[in-house]
Design a protein that fits this description.
By secondary structure, the chain is α+β, with helices and mostly antiparallel strands. The chain contains 12 helices and 13 strands. Bound molecules: adenosine-5'-diphosphate.
């Protein structure tokens, strides 16, 4: 109903009242008749307004019959709005129920933490795995309810790239992997996901032990064979036609020895999550020694330059770091042709110390870069073997860096060389002039 219609309605009523007054219908003078009509009109509006307010307040459903005129339209509109929101609420409840049913059937533990890290919701698996029961523990701090070792520190660290893998508190034979995913407004809420990884963990352990044991068992017989082959190859009594096959055998036994040594190194690295025996490592000195060996390997065919901050040391595991540096520098020599330039860079940056090994060799095609740190992954198998590669060098580098909370990034363009950058955390930097107190924070082996 438009405003004019309301005005017309009121005008009609008043005109009727005036006419009744003039004609003395009902025995009332004009003024009284007008007043009476106005009062009745106002009362009707007030009543309908009060009724609507009561309906809304008590959340009653507005149903026909609706009053006439403007109020009828208003009642109808409110009724339609109520119906729409009722449907929306029903849909929301249905979705909520289905989501809960789905989340309840997930075998992983799911816990939703609010902005202040308090428990908002958890599925039944969370009760079994983490001891978090919903709704009993709603509003409590997760660390208060779940005494899982390492969980408090993990949550506080606010760094969830790697999951927390720990034996379950209630049963040490169960291995748990706990992941945290921040979500919601400004990512202040957390979804904690706990998974039973006992099977995968044991399989991994069996695989690791198998590789370590097999490598170890092969090492002794191979040393004996290599010794005999070496003696025969260098003996003056060996007939000439046997010399070439013996030299080939010597090359192959040496290759096998390198593979076994690299496999054993990898197995040792896999045994621990973080580096042990941390000491202040004079990395510039280590780099210089590795580069001296690389120059011998290159036999003058490469131009190797150094750009080192000689005062910049690193807190880490010396033999692991040396192995990483030598793999990167030797790769730059092995995988580039004669005449190539190799640059080794060790400098401090605001975010932490950086080691960079760059060459201007053939580089690596982009499709290989994501896989290049996998075991035995080589861009060109035949060429890698010919250059004495085991295919394990970069896997070792990646493990060593992960032990030191460092990150490896590889930049390369085919034909324009490759750059391997290792970024170490700022806490691991040590200046030669720094005092010993820093050493108190070292992890012991
Ligand atoms: P490998 O023992 O074969 O060197 P790595 O794991 O060290 O094994 O390296 C894997 C592969 O990455 C190599 O086979 C090679 O194809 C490629 N690669 C590594 N470093 C370089 C480099 N500096 N330039 C070009 N390719 C490289």
């Amino acid at each position: 109903m438009r405003a004019e219609a309301v005005g017309f309605e009121l005008a009609l009523l008043l005109a009727g009242a005036a006419l009744a007054g003039v004609l003395h219908l009902g025995g009332l003078p004009t003024a009284e008749a007008l007043l009476l009509v106005l009062a009745a009109y106002l009362l009707r509006h007030l009543y309908l307004l009060w009724r609507l307010a009561r309906f809304i307040q008590r959340q009653h459903r507005l149903a026909p019959p609706f009053p006439l005129g403007l109020w009828g339209e208003l009642y109808r509109a409110v009724g339609r709005y109520q119906q729409r929101s009722r449907k929306g609420r029903k849909r929301q409840l249905r979705f909520q129920r289905r989501f809960r049913e789905a989340a309840n059937s997930v075998p992983d533990a799911l816990v939703v933490l609010g902005k202040s890290q308090r428990i908002e919701w958890a599925n039944p698996a969370a009760a079994e795995m983490l001891g978090v029961r919903w709704p009993d523990h709603e509003g409590r701090l997760l660390t208060e309810v779940c005494a899982q070792t390492g969980l408090g520190t993990y949550l506080e660290a606010d760094e969830y790239a790697r999951p927390l893998e720990v034996p379950a508190e209630h049963d040490q034979s169960i291995m748990l992997s706990i992941r945290v995913a921040p979500f919601g407004e400004r990512k202040r809420q957390r979804l904690v996901v706990g998974r039973d990884i006992t099977k995968i963990f044991h399989l991994n352990m069996i695989r690791r032990d198998f590789v370590a044991n097999a490598s170890h068992e092969l090492r002794t017989p191979l040393t004996v064979i290599a010794g005999f082959v070496e003696n025969l190859a260098s003996s003056a009594l060996t007939p000439e036609p046997h010399r070439r096959p013996l030299s080939l055998m010597e090359n192959q036994t040496n290759r096998m020895r390198s593979i076994i040594e690299d496999l054993l190194t990898l197995s040792r690295l896999e045994l621990e999550d973080a580096a042990s025996n941390l000491t202040p490592v004079n990395l510039p000195q280590e780099i210089e020694q590795v580069v001296a060996d690389a120059r011998t390997l290159s036999a003058g065919k490469h131009d190797i330059t150094l750009d080192l901050d000689h005062d910049l040391m690193l807190i880490g595991n010396q033999s692991e770091l040396r192995s990483a540096v030598s793999n990167l520098v030797f790769n730059a020599v092995k995988h580039t042709p004669a005449g190539s330039h190799v640059r080794v860079w060790w400098q401090d940056e605001p975010v932490g110390p950086v080691l960079r090994v760059a060459d201007d060799g053939p580089g690596i095609a982009p499709e290989h870069i994501p896989r290049i740190t996998e075991r035995f992954y080589r861009v060109d198998k035949a060429r890698s073997r010919a250059s004495g590669g085991t295919g394990l060098g970069l896997a070792i580098v990646k493990h060593v860096l992960s032990h030191h909370d460092a990150v490896l990034s590889i930049a390369s363009e085919p034909g324009r060389g490759a750059t391997f950058t290792c970024r170490f955390p700022a806490e691991s930097r040590l200046r030669r002039t720094d005092q010993v107190p820093q050493l108190q924070v070292l992890r012991s082996g």
